[in-house]
Amino acid sequence: MANSTSQIRALTASAFKTPEKFTEFCRNGGKPLGGLIGGEETPGSMNATFQTIDPGSLEVLATISEMGEAEVGRAVSVATHAFHAWRNVDVEKKIALVTKLVELCERDKNVLLACEILDGGKVSELAEGDFGQIRACAEYFCGVARKIAMGDGPSMQVSPGVQGFTYREPWGVVAGIIPWNYPIVLTAWFMFPALLSGNTILIKPAEDTPLSALYIGKLAQEAGFPPGVINVLPGRGEITGHCIAEHPGVRFISFTGSPGVGQAILRTCDRNGTRMKREMGGNGAAIVLADADPAVVARMIGRYTNQHFGQTCCTIHRIFVDRKIADDFTDAQSTFFKELKIGYQADAGTQLGAVINPTQRRRILAAQQETVERGGKPILAGGEAVVAGKNGFYLKPALYRTEPGLNVNPLEVFHTYATICPVSSAEEALQLANASPYGLGASIWTKDIKRGVSLAKQFRDGTCQVNCHNSIAYGLPYGGQGISGGPGGGVNCEETFLDYTQVKAVYVADYPA
Predict the structure, then answer these.
(1) What would the 3-class secondary structure string for 247-297 be?
(2) Which residues form the catalytic set?
(3) Secondary structure (DSSP) of 151-169
(4) pTM above 0.90, yes or no
(5) pLDDT tens digits for 115-130?
């Protein structure tokens, strides 16, 4: 942990200039960007298009063809055909193709950064970190693919004359429904374990941020992936996503998004026996013990709360602080939020940019109002912000004081928004933190590491942290409890790879004499 407040700042933008290659990709020769099915760009048969915009300027970046029932059906068909060969490709050949794709992504890094910064609205410091996940994720799962044996497992004697063994195989056609907040990261987290375990894939990017998936799909063709192994289906969730969930040829779906949408997709999947893993947001808690330095910890928590302007599923929105230091903590947290530089995400120095779309802006403003109606006392009241020369979806940070017994922010608020609740004990704080139906990430802040670990283990969350937050590491699962996730092993671990496989028991008896 940083030991002085001067070292702790929000993620910050460097000036970013749009690369010409990105502009050419978006123009697409004057035609809408189509989906990628069977190695070919495909216009939608519905003749429906949508525009993807820069949320900080409202500039139209590209026009996209929406994929409907016919395109989903064709994608499943070609992916099913490709699966029969892909599943039997030697693991080292799969790894070679994945490595080539990573190299092409790094060759065209500026194009993918443009996708994250301009289409996704990120500041460059965060976008750079997200881009680095492509190689990190690929290398980790290449190692896992070498380690985990597919096919026949060890044989065992079941009974006299009867042997039994397991047989591990990929599902077949699997789909990844990717959210708009971390498109490159979550595409990588889905794509690499799914491919390396032998599946063929459908990538359904969010309609707000389709460009990175479409560009990665284009690079996959250049890398030499066989047609039909990687397919990209842009469109709205209620159209394209629904068609994917409805299709009986999709054997497994990985979903990241809101609880309501995830639960609706799960019910649809159940009708066809389609397996599904899901991560469905959070309402992260931080507990600050009395021995913590309020000035330092308030800024650390502020940095996490503001990561991607609060549009991060596991970040901190509920803060429970020991009463002895609550006033000092509140003052320091308020100062950090007030210092945030609101601006256009591609301009140097920006720390708080526009939210992704007008629907999110409306939801956040409503949540700010509801917090007050439920008894929260505004320290920073939020509201709309103005950025000179830009017409994006800009909002001010919001900070509220509350008390135990007031449930002022029951739902996930995707912005730089937090409530501070003074508490009398760590036990009281844990009870309040665990009262949320969400369970994605939570943290303890204390100088007493042993006590912090003991308390962190009592969170009802998938990721429990001491003196850090928004933590990920390859080899450790990232997943949720409660309505935030399940089933399966989360992401970023060996269990993730296993989620994209199924196991059968095979019994073999001697032929009767």
Answers:
(1) CCCCCEEEEECCHHHHHHHHHHHHHHCCEEEEECCCCEEEEECCCCCHHHH
(2) 279, 313
(3) EE---EEEETTEEEEEEEE
(4) yes
(5) 999 999 999 999 999 9
